[in-house]
Design goal:
Layout (H helix, E strand, L loop, with lengths): L2 H11 L1 H4 L3 H8 L3 H7 L1 E5 L9 H13 L3 E4 L2 E3 L2 E3 L3 H14 L5 E4 L18 H7 L2 H18 L3 E2 L24 H16 L7 E7 L14 E2 L4 H8 L1 H8 L4 E4 L2 E2 L14 H11 L5 E3 L6 H4 L4 H11 L4 E2 L4 H14 L4 H17 L13 H4 L3 H14 L1 E4 L13 E6 L9 H10 L4 E4 L6 H12 L3 E6 L16 H9 L5 E5 L14 E3 L5 H11 L20
Parallel strand pairs: 1-2, 1-12, 2-5, 5-6, 6-7, 7-9, 8-10, 9-11, 14-15, 14-16, 16-17, 17-18
Antiparallel strand pairs: 3-4, 13-18
Helix pairs in contact: 3-16, 4-15, 7-18, 8-9, 9-11, 14-15, 18-22, 19-22, 20-21
Length: 566
């Protein structure tokens, strides 16, 4: 490592001191009050390269040149229930264009929880965090962090809003599950630390790393995208369990911590969301845990907060509570105006605003954005989805495959040619399950494979049962959504009724969970195999394991307690 590269990595670790540098002072004094407020606002873009004459482009242009926001966060659109990922060249080209327009360097972020592939196509196809948890090997997660930082920086993304530090100890959690490493705080902490070390450890491509969602979103049964979630655990348990991975992250030097739109009565008796709670963000995170880095809100357009506060009030309350970054306010202009007005009225002190702006400016300096704010488009292809990345992804998905139950030794299949498989995607238009079915057909062409739909009629269920009766062994492979969509974390439609009927068909029946393991709780007697991810590579690994073509070595990172009695 050269001296300059060593210094670059060292500066990234020296955030609090760097915020007091003369260069930060110079930049801070050059900004108007409104520009300071705008620096703390991060707005979304959807990865395409909009036409320069389109309303969408004109709005983004104005947010950079007129409002002077501090940065962007990359999101995806959803079409017909399927996520449409961005083109990496379009992402880099758009960000380069915005960087040229901006007075100060923009900072760009992305929810790269399973690498850049969560948002961007043609990147390394890593599985979900729970798959890495099932491998039991933090070294794989450390390599994931390094690969994620490299791919992100190549596209002009500097801030990784990952990893998830939530302890997923509630099987009914509709929004975290596969995004968490598991339910054991020690397991989660070890993988969180490993990801941070990997992402921050490269001198060539260091990135800012954010753990989320403080003070913990794992023990909830509500999705804060749509409602205000509640964590009811006592303070002692929260400190021993939910906060443990965040302590580990702070010890590892994490740059940023993202808040959760959750109510935690044990930590905030006023029962206001953690994102706007001084007791939680200042009292617990700053004072008790000693965190001095950047605090980002979760997206302010989520219903868990937006149903209570408009953009301006949410932004001011978050800063009052101790947050630094205002992420995705529905109305960015209103957020900027409200923060500036709060300073002018004395509600928010100028020193409080300056403290947050200093941290953000220091982060941009540490990333060397003032000298190198744009990326080399010609170098992009060589930085993405490298052979080493592909090998890492393949190893992770293979080692994640886990047998949950196998009392009769049904798994892997002994005679696939005499088995039949029913693939159960979550919606009629979903592509989940396609890679699994294709891999089965390619490896075992004589195995009968049928893809069904959640809207099964009684006649369709009867037909499936009749088919099952003609087979030696029956397998039902379900794909349950892992994303934040209401009512899609469990088995869809009439699939539960189908599985119950298949159990009575008189043939051995096994389940394959292509992703979410928790629906297996409803069928405790059935042998089962789990992939812990819905990415195609995980589906292919599950197919090989089912057919006995690959060893099965994963360890359950979560438990499957019986569901509540109806």
């Amino acid at each position: 490592m050269t001296v300059s590269r060593f210094l670059s990595a060292a500066l990234l670790l020296a955030a609090p001191a760097f915020a007091q540098s003369p260069e930060v002072d110079r930049l801070l004094t050059s900004l108007t009050l409104e520009e300071k407020a705008a620096q703390l606002v991060m707005v979304p873009f959807y990865g395409g390269l909009p036409n320069a004459k389109s309303p969408a482009y004109r709005e983004l242009h104005a947010l950079v040149t007129d409002v002077r926001v501090g940065g962007f966060i990359l999101l995806n659109r959803v079409q017909r229930g399927n996520v449409v990922r961005a083109d990496p060249h379009a992402v880099a080209t758009f960000l380069n264009r915005m960087q040229r327009l901006s007075k100060l360097p923009l900072i760009a972020g992305g929810d790269f929880e399973r690498g850049a592939s969560m948002r961007v196509e043609a990147t390394a196809p890593f599985p979900h965090a729970m798959a890495f948890g099932a491998t039991g090997d933090p070294a794989l997660t450390r390599a994931l962090g390094a690969a994620t930082a490299r791919e992100a920086r190549a596209m002009g993304i500097h801030w990784i809003f990952a990893p998830v530090a939530d302890v997923n100890n509630n099987p009914d959690n509709p929004v975290i599950h596969l995004r968490a490493f598991g339910e054991d705080p020690g397991l989660v902490a070890s993988h969180v630390q490993a990801f941070i070390e990997g992402a921050r450890g490269s001198a060539e491509t260091p990135a800012l790393v954010t753990v989320k969602h403080f003070p913990g979103h794992g023990d909830t049964s509500e999705d804060s995208h749509y409602a205000l979630a509640r964590v009811t655990a006592p303070a002692e348990r929260l400190r021993a369990l939910e906060l443990a991975p965040f302590r580990a992250a702070i010890a590892a030097g994490v740059d940023s911590i993202m808040t959760a739109h959750v109510i935690v009565p044990a930590l905030e008796p006023a029962e206001i969301p953690a994102t706007v709670s001084p007791a939680i963000l200042t009292g617990v995170l700053r004072d008790e845990l000693g965190f001095t880095g950047l605090v980002s809100t979760d997206a302010l357009d989520m219903r868990g907060l937006s149903r209570f506060f408009d953009s301006g009030e949410a932004a001011v309350r978050a800063l009052e509570a101790g947050a630094d970054l205002v992420l995705m306010p529905p109305d960015p202009r209103a957020a900027v105006k409200a923060v500036a007005a709060a300073v002018r009225s004395g509600r928010l002190s100028a020193a409080r605003l300056d403290d947050s702006v200093r941290k953000l400016l220091a982060a941009k300096l540490r990333l060397n954005l003032h000298q190198h704010r744009m990326v080399d488009l010609d170098a992009l292809p060589d930085a993405l989805d490298t052979p080493e990345d592909q090998a890492l992804a393949a190893e992770a998905v293979r080692r994640a495959i886990t047998v949950v139950r196998n009392p009769a030794g049904l798994l892997p299949l002994k005679n696939p040619t005499r088995a039949c498989l029913f693939v159960l995607p979550p919606t009629r238009t979903s592509t989940l399950g396609e890679a699994f079915a294709a891999a089965i057909t390619e490896a075992s062409p004589k195995m009968r494979v049928e893809t069904l739909s959640p809207q099964l009629t009684p006649a369709a269920i009867a037909a499936a049962v009749k088919t099952a009766a003609s087979c030696e062994t029956v397998v039902a492979a379900y794909a349950a959504y892992n994303a934040a969509y209401p009512q899609r974390a469990a088995l869809a439609g009439n699939y539960p009724a189908l599985i119950e009927k298949l159990q009575s068909a008189g043939r051995p029946l096994a389940l394959v969970a292509l992703g979410n393991p928790y629906p297996l709780r409803h069928f405790p007697a059935l042998p089962a195999l789990v992939s812990f991810s819905t990415v195609p590579l995980s589906e292919e690994a599950a197919a090989r394991a089912l057919l006995g073509l690959a060893p099965i070595s994963g360890v359950m990172p979560v438990s499957l307690p019986p569901p509540p009695a109806r």
